[in-house]
Amino acid sequence: MSPRDAMFSVAGAGRRRCQARLAAVLAGALLGSGCASHGLPHTSPTQSVPGPDFSGVWWVEQPERTLLPIDGASVPLTPAGRRQYDEYRAQLQAGKIEDLTRKYCLPDGLPRLLTAPYPFEVVLTRHQATFLHEARHVYRAIPLDVQHPPPQMMLDNYMGNSVARWEGDTLVIDSIRFNDETKLDVSGLPHSDQLHVTERWRKIDGGRRLQDEITIDDPPIFTMPWSTRITFAYRPDLTINEYVCGEPHRNRSSTGGAR
Amino acid sequence: MTVRLAGFALLLALGVLGASGMINSARGAEAEDAEAAHSAFDGIWRNAGIGRRPPGSPGVCCSEEGWQDFASKLQPWAMEVMVRRDAALQIGRSLPTNTSTCMPDGTPTVIDIPYAFQFVRTPTHTYILYEADNQSRRIRMNSTHPAKLAPTWYGDSIGYWDGDTLVVDTVGLNAQGQINWDGIPHTTALHVIERYTVKDPGAMELQMTLTDPGTLTGPWTVIKHFRRLNETQLYEYVCAQNNRDQPVPTE
Questions:
Q1: pLDDT tens digits for B93-104?
Q2: What pTM was estimated for this model as a whole?
Q3: Residue B240 and residue A5: Cβ atoms within 8 Å?
Q4: CATH fold label, B42-242
Q5: Residue range A145-170: average pLDDT?
Q6: Distances in Å between the alpha carbon of B64 and those of B67, B69, B72, B74?
Q7: In 3D, which of A150, A147, A111 has the Cα closest to residue A131?
Q8: What is the C-alpha to C-alpha distance for residues A173 and A166, in angstroms, rounded to an integer?
Q9: Alpha helices of chain B — where are they, by DSSP H?
Q10: Cross-chain residue pair B154–A242, CB shorter than 8 Å
Q11: pLDDT digits (tens, 9 = 90+) for B30-61
Q12: Residue A120, domain extent
């Protein structure tokens, strides 16, 4: 079995486990979701979905925020990371360089995309977590219950390479193999090709808000892994608009979140 | 007497429960069959042939007959645009269409492109994710078009299941897109009906009917074939990264 086959047989095993659990639930004559609570197709993106399923439209609460560690400490930059960060910011401020993500309308990378001032729609199904971001029409199609493909099967991407799994009420997304054309946030926080992003998504406040607790591990840039939080408001009143580079768009400032 | 009545009530209750159980299980079986048929759409698909022109003739579709049928319905102005674009392509020039400038392909060109795509199904929506430049479409199932629509690149799409066939109905398209890769224009009156059927686990057929009085003298139907791609994924595709090439002459 090639590593590629192994990756997909893990998916098969996940499905079989799910079916076995579903059968057990049905045999017990229980009405309810069984393994459905972990990612069966949701009922409607315009209704609040009970359980951990956070399918629906969400909008970041604090757009374009500079990322800070949860514990209130400063970002644990290594000397090399500090140098890169300071140089980039100085050059940006002096107008010597431009924010290429904006200039060329490129995918923001992680976690920066999550702070973009546009809504996104989450579609959670059995075998995939799909995030449809309005910003720069980026989608993430993240397979569930599989391992990362072997290294030779992965390309370095703006959005990295992601796999996901449910841990209780939390969807955990593991992303590696990012290209070096993105920054971690709008302030220009750098990363290297060793960046490893772990996201832990779960509903908070009775499902009115969504939280992503993000752990960033990147030894050349940071002295230790550190975590930050981004929160989102549930917006069943919105659908995702077309986003065409070069055309005017709605964003948080243009609508005031008031639609 | 009381006992008999109670016994009768119990039998009645059991009968009702049993009957409703049978109805429920019949409905359940139907739903399961439908789910099994619809799940055949899951996975990654790709154009089986990219549907370029037959040698020697400009045009869209897959066969000489199809081209004849299409050409006979194309309004003269649309034919002129297509011939001009085609002539430019023949001498290695690329006129600035939406596709060549990293604008959205839009509906229905996005269906015509030789990159993978995936259906994502929920009870209320069907999404189509296209590998080509991160494009996606959102199809409301069992819904209606709004009375007023601002034209967009992908239009307003509603869908329903006709047995095992997924039907997608799209209106509200802007006039910046094209009918397909070959540069055939359309107007905002374009109405696209797609009928996707999985013929066997590895093959899907699309019967697509285009109606656009501004471009075509009558409805035109084309058949497209897709094959399933196993053990793969949608790869990241960023048009702006690859296509930052030199300026192209204006039309």
A1: 777 788 778 889
A2: 0.82
A3: no
A4: Lipocalin (2.40.128)
A5: 94
A6: 5, 9, 12, 15
A7: A111
A8: 9
A9: 2-39, 64-73, 76-90, 109-112, 239-242
A10: yes
A11: 888 888 889 999 999 998 765 455 544 444 45
A12: 39-243
Decide if A1 is inside a domain.
no
Q: Give the residue from A139, A161, A243, A247 with the most B CB atoms within 10 Å of its CB, the best one to mutate.
A: A139
Q: How far is CA A257 from CA A59, B240, B242, in A?
A: 9, 29, 34
pLDDT tens over chain B, length 251 residues: 445 555 555 555 555 555 555 556 666 788 888 888 899 999 999 987 654 555 444 444 556 667 778 888 999 999 888 888 878 877 877 777 887 788 899 999 898 877 899 999 999 999 999 998 899 999 999 999 999 999 999 999 999 999 999 999 999 999 999 988 777 899 999 999 999 999 999 999 999 999 999 999 999 998 888 999 988 889 888 887 764 333 333 33
ipTM of the complex: 0.82
What are the extents of the domains in chain B? 1-39, 42-242
Task: Give contacts of A 147-186 with B, CB under 8 A.
Answer: 155, 157-159
**A10 occurs within a structural domain:** no
Which chain B residues are closer than 8 Å to A158 by Cβ? Answer: 236, 238
Please identify which residue in the block is written with the tokens 């431009």. A98
In chain A, whose CA is at the least distance from the CA of B131?
A139
d(CA B240, nearest CA chain A) in Å: 6
Q: Domain count of chain A?
A: 1
Does B103 reach chain A within 8 Å, measured CB to CB? yes
CB contact under 8 A, B244 and A104: yes
Q: What CATH number should be reported for the domain holding residue A193? A: 2.40.128.20
Report yes or no on A19 lying in a domain: no
Does A21 map to a domain? no
